[in-house]
Amino acid sequence: MFAVEVRDHIMIAHSLPGEVFGPAQKLHGATFVVDVAFFRAELPPDNIVVDIGRALEALKKALAPLNYANLDEDPALAGHVTTTEFLAKTIFERMAAARRDGWLGPHAEGISRMRVTLSESHVARGWYEADVA
Amino acid sequence: MFAVEVRDHIMIAHSLPGEVFGPAQKLHGATFVVDVAFFRAELPPDNIVVDIGRALEALKKALAPLNYANLDEDPALAGHVTTTEFLAKTIFERMAAARRDGWLGPHAEGISRMRVTLSESHVARGWYEADVA
Amino acid sequence: MFAVEVRDHIMIAHSLPGEVFGPAQKLHGATFVVDVAFFRAELPPDNIVVDIGRALEALKKALAPLNYANLDEDPALAGHVTTTEFLAKTIFERMAAARRDGWLGPHAEGISRMRVTLSESHVARGWYEADVA
Amino acid sequence: MFAVEVRDHIMIAHSLPGEVFGPAQKLHGATFVVDVAFFRAELPPDNIVVDIGRALEALKKALAPLNYANLDEDPALAGHVTTTEFLAKTIFERMAAARRDGWLGPHAEGISRMRVTLSESHVARGWYEADVA
Amino acid sequence: MFAVEVRDHIMIAHSLPGEVFGPAQKLHGATFVVDVAFFRAELPPDNIVVDIGRALEALKKALAPLNYANLDEDPALAGHVTTTEFLAKTIFERMAAARRDGWLGPHAEGISRMRVTLSESHVARGWYEADVA
Amino acid sequence: MFAVEVRDHIMIAHSLPGEVFGPAQKLHGATFVVDVAFFRAELPPDNIVVDIGRALEALKKALAPLNYANLDEDPALAGHVTTTEFLAKTIFERMAAARRDGWLGPHAEGISRMRVTLSESHVARGWYEADVA
Predict the structure, then answer these.
(1) What pTM, to 2 d.p., does this model score?
(2) What is the ipTM of this complex?
């Protein structure tokens, strides 16, 4: 299995309702360093898993609505607890849609799996990984 | 698959008997930066893989008998060569026990897999990963 | 010159008023990984710049009012633009006060200089460094 | 599953022919920080996945023909686009051969899987992972 | 003293003539992760050392002629041995010129010192630091 | 001011006598990732602060008596509390001697200052920096 992973980041505010979150129930924030990994079984003739330039552009586009935002006021996230795990899946789904819609270029058709990792500090991170059809 | 990973560290002394270990046969030591990853297939309604606060506490508790210790004199490790790989599994088993015993909270019942990684320097690390029942 | 540096982190929300801040004028947030360095010219007999355990406790105490908070609503910061640079100095002053008040222990009297670094992402950080009397 | 991972690096020049590579079609270069992970199901009595000393030596040997080289002039790579992904597999194959030829020592027979990761900057990396027979 | 530091990177080919360079006399390459630190004694009312957005743009502009290039063929570097140290100063001078020419914005007038660091691998880096008039 | 910094590491056992050290009074251990920075005002014609190959060899030689050792039994350290700070200065002195004795090569005569940093975990490090005559 081959993989390529690229990195960007977002800076967000949010609150996490629920007793389990302790002080994080208050409005606070986070920098999430976001890594997206693309997996595929075999390489095409130009030996790339994905066009990295397009991958970085698609990631920036996927992250734009979240960046410099208060997630508590984002209609697309209403009713959800915006944990690191949940946001990893949210970004995964946006990247999967970008792939389906051709934003990752023709090479991206061979991608069979993706993983989105959000590092929230030097001591904690979360990710979501799944096949893409 | 969702995952969350948290970090702590220990500082230990030990020796590694056996010719294959060369100079590490002598009493020496290591800082192990310890990452524990928790995996689960689906998220519960509050969107967390595990209660991170409890995970960090359970990890600190699991590491306490090893921290600032000479592993050569730890009765729980007697007869074992305390390599990075072996210690990764040892800590894995203690974290798995913590989960069974409820130290990770009710959310932890949905955890299906764990991984414990020990980074011993900027150039070497080891890990153990397995399902938890 | 000897130095010791310790690390902790905070997760905050804030907004940065002023056209120069572009999209960061909106309410957003950040994880700041906070490193505090303590400098001194010579070591005392037990060869430590500062008691690391006390330094970490004092840092946690200095950071507590900022952690999991919306800095826009912190009375102690009212009227200030809470940039990374400004927050570095704010934390510096709280650590300098902790030293004066004895929270860093008797060793801390020999500390002549401190530096507080806030890393806000994998591509940007800021710091404040100055002598302490 | 147990794993051990070791690190080295190479500094190479190359060009990447093909419109998809944009400015990287020109002769340029890269530092690749190379991590090789070795996986095995169970540990032998001395509790090691692989002899780390031998693994590092074998890695240095596998990397030597690539290090401080212009890959465009390497006959072994002629006709291939030397992307990060492709180089990860190339190094994987050389490490797999090293294992078959006994360079990793007798412990290496129990290794069932390997992964080679090439980090090319703080924002991009690629890897190849597969079973070894 | 306040400081802000931002990061970008370049991927270059070059050769280093002179016996002292051993195998690096051959055409090879490097990724340089480039950090530029800006220092100033006091903060202006909006509490920033420099406009980070402008700093990142100016850095990208300063790096552009070096990125994806063979430095052996760059007329601006002809006759120079393009070591990490030398390139750090080269980029420093281009950033100092950017500041003088107003690319860093009006805040940049208060900058009194700069440092450019080039990390070439996980085990080596070089930098140049000096006052700017 | 120009600088170059190189990295190696040691794995040691020791104990730290004195109430201030709490649990670290017991025999334990550490991995110290060791960075040595060399400073000089101007570059010689071949544009290097120091011959990196020689610097790495000299560092390995300076670290050898400490690596895989129990520092409590090292006669050269007898009567000293082997804190991170103290060890930074110890290694500094050995590197300064290496420079005086010619192990760093002729370029090293222009070195005016050095710094030795020991990172003991992801949250703590210490260093010693001074002029060299």
Answers:
(1) 0.97
(2) 0.96
